[in-house]
Amino acid sequence: MQELEVRPGRVTLKWAWKMALIMILITIALFYTKVDAKSFLNYVVYIPFIFGLMMAIKEHKEKDLEGFISFRRAFTTGFRYASIISFIMGVFMYIYLRFINPQVFEQSLVEAENIMLDQGKSDDQIEMALSMARSWGVFMAAISASIGYTLFGGFLSLIGAAIFKNARPIYVEVERDEL
């Protein structure tokens, strides 16, 4: 019964803010150290995301639920964490691509233009596509990042729930000292 009374909101919010801050700092550090956008080092930002998700489930299980957690509750905790961090990172990605590092977005437009030229698109088609991308591209990139973190978090929540589930026993046997 206690599992229904205690909600994971406090734990998920705490870990999401902590890990989002770390992820933002890593992203900015990678920008200032001029790491290439296609480098594998950019995936380092997922380490705090994964760590925070697992720690949110673990803390909720141990501190709020006395060491017991159902698969459903563990998944819900992880998914809430992922949803919160997805929103935070989506907002950050918009700010990052619009103001901090707009060169990344411009580079992607150049690559898209080259692909369209290779495909034999006309100049009018290319110009129309690029103008639409310039007006909506950063916003759509932020939305895509947010959706991507949510989906990845859902997948990791399934894994975390499988790892941390420990259902409360229905019956508890009490040992008796018989004389």
Question: What Rg, in angstroms, do the CA atoms define?
Answer: 22 Å
**Secondary structure category:** mainly alpha
**Secondary structure: helix percent:** over 70%
Distance between the termini: 35 Å
Secondary-structure element order, N to C? HHHHHH
Number of helices: 6
Largest sheet: none
Low-confidence parts lasting 5 or more residues at pLDDT below 50?
none
Number of strand elements? 0
Organism: Pseudopedobacter saltans (strain ATCC 51119 / DSM 12145 / JCM 21818 / CCUG 39354 / LMG 10337 / NBRC 100064 / NCIMB 13643)
Keywords: Membrane, Transmembrane, Transmembrane helix
Transmembrane segments: 15-33, 39-57, 78-97, 138-164
InterPro entries: DUF4199
Structural notes for this entry:
The chain has 6 helices and no strands. The chain has about 180 residues and is an all-alpha fold. It has a domain at about 1-95 and about 145-165. Helix 3 packs parallel to helix 6 and helix 4 runs antiparallel to helix 6 (about 125-165). The protein is elongated, with a radius of gyration of 22 Å. The model has no long low-confidence stretch (mean pLDDT about 90). Pfam families: DUF4199. InterPro entries: DUF4199.
Keyphrases for this structure?
76% helix; single chain; mainly alpha; 179 residues
How would the blueprint of this fold be written?
Elements: H1 2-5, H2 9-32, H3 46-64, H4 71-100, H5 102-118, H6 123-164
Helix pairs in contact: 2-3, 2-4, 3-4, 3-6, 4-5, 4-6, 5-6
